[in-house]
Amino acid sequence: MKFTVDQIATILQGTVSGDGSQFITGFDKIEEGKPGSISFLSNPKYESYLYDTNATAVIVSKDLALKNKVKSTLICVDDPYVAFTILLQKYQEMTATRETGISIHAIIEAGVKVGKDLFVGRFTSIDSHCKIGDNTSIHNQVSIGKNVQIGDNCIIYPGVVIYNDTIIGNHVVIHSNAVIGSDGFGHAPQADGSFKAIPQLGNVVIEDHVSIGANTTIDRATMGSTFIRSGVKIDNLVQIAHNVDIGANTAIAAQTGISGSTKIGENCLIAGQVGIAGHLTIAAKTIITGRAGVTKSIKQAGQVIGGYPAVNNAEYLKRSALIRRLPELFDQIKNIK
């Protein structure tokens, strides 16, 4: 990477404050900035680093009012975080190299239809009657079952397991050791106290532009489909149970578990270690804070929910503050008695 600050500002549609002719050769966090690097400032709590950083350039908000002098050249934009993301994406596109071809150590069964410029790595197996689109990369040791459909421009990283009948759209990324289409957790209790497995006959449908993190599991439906809608971003170590429906452009952080038949609305943000009970409906644009336990449906869109059992986050914070005061309140009551 070697671009001038002016060239980067043009890409980001920003304005330059300082010497735009300087060259940028790498990226750094603002607190670790070095000459030749570019960084960004979006969180106000890191603003103090702006005045000390040695980064050649820093992407900042055009509304930022400087409190001190800065050594760096500034690129002023509407949203520094979005701008820096765009810059990283542009750099990745320019530097990425993509293999094509099918390894001699891969196993592709009869009836598989493959598109143009496919890459299949070593020891990957693709079972019969699958359909793989153009420009898709399937890396080493991936296992793909029967009747699976994978669209164009997908990346399937090493160790992924995709069960029979799964349907995957275009521009989907699935990271290592994710499991797509395993049986849902369905077991009927019997009179003698044992459990009998309920056949899981459905599948998983993943729409376009979805990202699925490493070691995440998405269960097939008992009947019908488990749906991951367009634009969903799922972190590592997430469990999504049978017949769940995740709405478009929802983001789910690590170690979250969503129980069966729950429907998540569009544009929701679900933080880490959240637990959501089964057969619930979560309204669009809901934000669920970390480690919350959701036991009831959320019907009003746009709420922030927290705590266990989850309630409106403002109410949860008030309760938490009162709980911290319980020892003090107990001593007061004891003194009164």
Overall description:
Helix content is 15%, strand content 29%. The protein is of the alpha/beta class and 337 residues long. It has two domains: 93 residues, Udp-n-acetylmuramoylalanyl-d-glutamate--2,6- Diaminopimelate Ligase, Chain: A, domain 1 (3-Layer(aba) Sandwich), CATH 3.40.1390; 217 residues, UDP N-Acetylglucosamine Acyltransferase, domain 1, CATH 2.160.10. The strands form six sheets. It has a twelve-stranded mixed sheet with strand order 8-11-14-17-20-25-28-31-34-37-39-40, covered by helices on one side. It has a ten-stranded parallel sheet with strand order 9-12-15-18-21-26-29-32-35-38, with no helix packed on it. A nine-stranded parallel sheet has the order 10-13-16-19-24-27-30-33-36, with no helix packed on it. A hairpin with a 5-residue loop joins strand 22 and strand 23. The longest helix has 16 residues. The chain starts with a strand and ends with a helix. The model has no long low-confidence stretch (mean pLDDT 95).
